[in-house]
């Protein structure tokens, strides 16, 4: 029996219980890979707030400078877990919201959602080992804001979220790992492996964002114009991960233009 692709995704996307959400997705994804989904592209997408944690403005989030206690370590890990959880929703939302696209588009973003779930669970397991769980700390909703702002434009969604904000994760990865490794807690032995998995997968995710941004954008549109038109999002880390960004599809000329723009040039 076929299942409705968009209706089922809507149910998963807005499920509030994290474990139920993941279980429902796993079942749905198996059905999708078995070609048991039917696509009703006339389906009308809805949008609503979708956070599982207490949300504060980014300036009100206190970020530990060092991982010098289990609580500080957990808070740093929680912030990364929140990004990964938000990324699950962003990948699901891309698959759910944008209609009449090649089948490969839906394959790509469901694969991303599956890998973001893997990342989230790896981080959640470490949080649990430390005596904490997802939702124990406050978080910001920058990624959800980006979802709302780009909900009506595929090129903007791919460019801002999946090619832009996800690439900032490539920039941040080595710095967060260095901070985590400053702890003396024995659990640190897990960090290098987990963050290597995340980095390798996120390069693939940004690459998918690159492919679909190029698919959706105007023929001669340059990426720097997107940066200028969405100034509420800084799309380049203060010290960016050049190697990872090039692997993910960025051109050196683009990176030079972005660096010049964000540095006030």
Automatic annotation (TrEMBL):
Source organism, top-level taxon: Bacteria
Pfam families on file: DUF455
SUPFAM superfamilies: Ferritin-like
PANTHER family reported for this sequence: DUF455 DOMAIN-CONTAINING PROTEIN (PTHR42782:SF4), SI:CH73-314G15.3 (PTHR42782)
Listed name of the protein: Ferritin-like domain-containing protein
Organism the protein comes from: Campylobacter volucris
